[in-house]
Design goal:
Length: about 300
Amino acid sequence: MNKKNILSVKNLEKIYTTKESNTHALNNLNLDVKEGEIFGLLGPNGAGKTTFINILGGTVIKTSGTVNVWGFNLDKNPRQVRASIGIVPQEVNLDPFFSPKKLLELQAGLYGIPKKDRITDTILKLVSLDHKANSYARSLSGGMKRRLLVAKALVHQPPIVFLDEPTAGVDVELRKKLWENVKLLNNRGVTIILTTHYIEEAEKMCDRVGILNKGNLIALDTTKNLLEKIQTKKVKIKTDKNIEIVDNELSSLKLISKSENSINISYEKSKISMEQLIQLIKKKNAIIKDISTDDGDLEDVFLRLTKN
Ligand code: ADP
């Protein structure tokens, strides 16, 4: 598991200076991303996510700090840094009169990749657009256009791919398809960094998550560890008859709601075990018909951390 860092960010600062004000978009950011992982950079609007991506892509100049990508220093080797990353932008910016194949060939030309080294067909297959290789881009569906953007970011075979809000405004079906494509890419060894304010996306996709808020990194951990920080468990129990539960009958136990032969309760995982809860119900001479549990999700962590 001791993989090397493919991206290393130290004391990164970005201050936008305008006539009216100074905006501290990134504040002393420290962050490492390991080779082969899917890393999620989460944060509400204005957190600094786009600024971060644009610094790496070379369109925004950092105020201070050090950035190393794939062993290259951003100040000393900006071209190599750019060659090491592929950025999938948020907005669709495709020439509607070119086919996917043509677009990828043009992009490869921009990177100076000789014809014999191009992997256009492989990339088209990877993003499931091989059957559309020669159709006009304008005839592609929204989801296909998004996948074509991913393909465009891959022509120079970068070891790191950034996806900026990959599924913003994309419906559930297409979102799943995009996630599958990204996982596929990751299985081939590409390190993925995605920004999102869509928390379910991070929970489904990311090995580790950093949460940015107003330019500050307020959490950095594995998705699993972040989820374990949520201590409140919610349980719905159906029984063969009505039972009474009072608050704190067991330590931290709370009745949320009650209906015919069914109760909704919550408790702290560290204070009660599921076994104790079942014993309590049995003592009331009720037979348990069904139990469903809800452990909370990354949204709960996110809201708690970004609330103030
Ligand atoms: P996010 O992508 O997380 O929504 P951004 O990186 O776009 O966040 O913005 C971070 C902060 O920097 C915001 O307060 C935003 O208003 C400010 N900002 C972004 N770009 C500029 C700019 N070109 N000039 C001035 N302020 C900017």
